[in-house]
Amino acid sequence: MSQVPGTATSTAALTPHAARSLVPTDWRRWLQLALAAIWVFDGILQDQTYMFSKDFSVSFLAGMAEGNPDWIASSILWAAHIVEGNPVLVNAGFATLQLGIGLAIAFRPTLRLGLAVSIVWSLGVWWFGEGLGMLLTGGATALAGAPGAVLLYAVLAVLLWPTVKDTSASFVAAQPLGIPAAKTVWVVLWGGLAALNLQPSQLTADSVSSKVSGMGDGQPGWVSFLINRFAEFSDHNGVALSIIGAILLALVAVGIFLPGRWTRTVLVAAVVVAAFIWVIGEALGAPFGGKGTDVNSGPLLALIALAYWPTTTKAVTTSTGVSA
Amino acid sequence: MIGPTWLAAIFGVIMLVAAVVAAVRIIAAWRAHRTTDYQIDIHNILMGVSMAGMLIPSLLIVTTGPSTIAWLVVWILLTIWFAISVARDAAQRRDGNGFTGHHLPHLVMSAAMVYMFAVLLVPASDSSDPAISGMPGMNAGGGLVPLATLDYAFVIFVVGYTVLVVDRLPAIAAMRSRDPQVVGHGGAATTARPLAPATAAINNIVMAITMGYMLTMMFA
Q: In chain A, what are the domain boundaries?
């Protein structure tokens, strides 16, 4: 019997105590590992053939400039030009960095380094690679991935930072920030998503169907089926659906202030909304086809919700002396 | 499942190194009277070699129909073997034999190897040789890989497995200094120190990342 799952070590019977010491001991660590896994996956996605082509910078990256103010668009085009100059070397760097961030977060001694680098990298990509999540174009919505998936990596890195500022905090996100600041982050995020649904461009008959139509192309059959059915349903119902979505997102935003089990209900609703966005609006991140760059915002919104889940566990110091 | 040729070659070489490391572990454990999980080491040798063969076709390990079928059979047998091991581990846990069970990740990875080899045998639209041109991403006709959701699920698993093992590396490395463990299943008990557990863990991490890479390249 191995001492650690999946490692070829002694076949001795490990004592239950020793075995438990090898398992993450708190909820925050599990969330950090989930974030690390997403980063590792993103690094692997960056290794796809298309990412090493000039078309990635010419079409994909430069395309993010469209609709943005001139001062943002010009900076995006500048960055795309740099990538276009040496796409293989630059993209290899991107992929290695993202993989490295994931492994650094997963490896406890380098946890803080990984999170810190992820914040800097995320903010840079949010600007130059996602056009600030297209928030200034007037067309960004939660269903389309707003506020930009990569920004949520930075938010998660902060919420999961291994510092316990408030030892009385009953949820992970409040440990590094304190409860008031953590709840402010929640309200800004979900309230902001609600506000995006009420933009004039979203209050049209086809505002919802136009966003999801075609998203299922090239994806697994069941995903395409669900997306296409929703697209048919939402056709000509964009106004109502946008308003309903805004109300739902606003309820999630303010629901964080509710007591006890109502908070859990709100968090479950947030996870359900995130799952809906991920499947219907983002086709599971649209990985099939060779051009997916990340899992998109759905899983990250769900992780953020889980960081607010009421828990009695606290951050612990591991055998390496690193508080995770 | 190759992606850029130069990158596939790098991963292929890494897989050959991983296979050699696993083989060395078996020899070193036997000679030094240290303990290792021979099942997993053998699994890693086979996985390293077969993945290298897929990543570097010029190695001629996995390039013909018969060899692909042979590897598929090997991986089906290994999957069955590890399924039995997982069941055995579960039975020992129920009997209160402390922590058991490290074969589940290798069961899943063996199943993933079955999947990859099975996909290799799917005929491509532009070639009569399924083993070579049937590689996803090299099919001129394009189209989704068979059982795409399963492919995605395998990727999620190996990526999750990777970070879990990385998380445990400091504790695994610390195990070298611990007292020798009692070994043996029902036979005479002996004491022996585990052989380089951190090396084994790193080997598994590298293989999992490479498998994640190959499965992700099948998305195209």
A: 21-306
